[in-house]
Write a structure and sequence with these properties.
5-stranded mixed barrel, single chain, binds zinc ion, OB fold (Dihydrolipoamide Acetyltransferase, E2P), 358 residues, 26% helix, 18 strands, 5-stranded mixed β-barrel, disordered C terminus, 8 helices
Length: 358
């Protein structure tokens, strides 16, 4: 079943049936009582919608905005700008082997991860940040990282689709909020909020202009493993310490994350390469700022400490959003208590991330 939030279903029924919210809620309540204990609020709302002849998903069959993508949907078509590209992984579990690769796209309404299986995974080598892609024939799953559009051999990925543009991407956090002292090794898609208490000088390094991978100096020239001798571009990394009162952690911000945090362009940033002393002012400006990061943890073996790799940065977290996070946490606790059975099913579905999908 497609998972549409209860309030969205209510709104849709109201809009299409002309009934008042009160009338609809009464119908849902009656349904809940008839099927006492066998059905969730959402399930009852689905049945009421059906009885009233209200189609909840008329958007299917065309291009969807990211915010309208719902768990359980099939044949999803979506266009977005590539924001992050992850490496291809080969796996071998329970006698089955295969390939999987993923990337994140965004549009004006939000962001979502696209997961490609089997031969589709090879597409990952053609992807770069900021290009536009169209996903056709995807299906939507949900795991601990939130909603994902999965693509198997029935689907299609079109790179640079004709006539498609994307405006300013709305970066939304689907990360699970944690306190810094709750972070574990290999946490992914977690969100932390804290104050910057220390900032280090940015470090610059050479990258291949074609594939953005590290270019290495050999004698007098720079070489990319794939593209040979290149005239390198520069990338950089900025490290800082974030403190949220429970603990502090080193946060690692690579190029785009650093630019977003500092509100600088690539050109402005490169000025610090030649005159590092100018960065001192920037450090002073950053100290004491409250920042929200979404990312993953990694163990720094050399120093035997946990670090946080930023994948999304929110330099000015919205106080209203923070209140929503608190409310969501409360709701989630409530929902867990209400439906233990559903939870068990969800846990099983979560396994899909590491297993081939057939
Ligand atoms: Zn290269």
């Amino acid at each position: 079943m497609i998972k549409m939030p209860y309030n969205d279903i209510l709104e849709k029924i109201q809009e299409k049936s002309g009934l008042t919210e009160q009338e609809i809620k009464e119908k849902i309540d009656t349904k809940l009582k008839q099927l006492s204990g066998l059905i969730s609020n959402e399930g009852a709302a689905h049945i009421v919608a059906n009885e009233l002849g209200v189609k909840l998903f008329d958007a299917l069959g065309g291009k969807l905005q990211i915010k309208n993508i719902l768990t359980g949907m099939r044949s999803v078509e979506v266009v977005g700008k590539v924001l992050r590209v992850f490496e291809l992984r080969e796996f071998n579990s329970k006698g089955r082997s295969g390939k999987v690769a993923s990337f994140v796209i965004g549009d004006e309404t939000g962001t979502i991860r696209i997961v490609m299986w089997g031969d589709q995974a090879e597409n990952i080598t053609k992807l770069k940040e900021n290009i536009i892609v169209k996903v056709v024939g995807g299906y939507v799953r949900e795991n601990q990282n939130g909603k994902e559009v999965h693509l198997n051999n029935m689907g299609k990925l079109i790179i640079n689709p004709e006539g498609e543009t994307i405006g300013e991407v709305k970066e939304t956090s689907s990360g699970k909020r944690k306190k810094i002292n709750q972070l574990n090794e290999n946490d992914s898609n977690v969100e932390i909020l804290g104050t910057i208490v220390q900032v280090f000088d940015p470090r610059f390094f050479e990258i291949c202009p074609e594939c953005n991978r590290r270019a290495r100096l050999r004698e007098d020239d720079f070489f990319c493993d794939t593209h040979g001798k290149v005239q390198p571009n520069y990338s950089f990394v900025l490290n800082l310490f974030l403190d949220d009162g429970t603990d502090n952690i080193r946060v690692v911000c690579f190029r785009n994350q650093a630019l977003k945090l500092l509100d600088k362009t690539q050109e402005q940033m490169l000025e610090y390469k030649d005159s590092p002393e100018k960065f001192e002012e920037m450090k002073t400006e950053l100290l004491g700022n409250i920042i929200k990061f979404v990312g993953r943890t990694t163990k720094n073996e050399m120093f035997d400490r946990l670090e946080f790799i930023s994948q999304l940065v929110f330099p000015n977290p919205d106080p209203d959003d923070e209140i929503k996070v608190l409310n969501k946490e409360l709701e989630e606790t409530k929902a867990k208590k209400e439906s233990m059975t559903e939870q068990v099913l969800d846990t099983k579905e979560n396994d899909v991330q590491d297993t081939p999908n057939i």
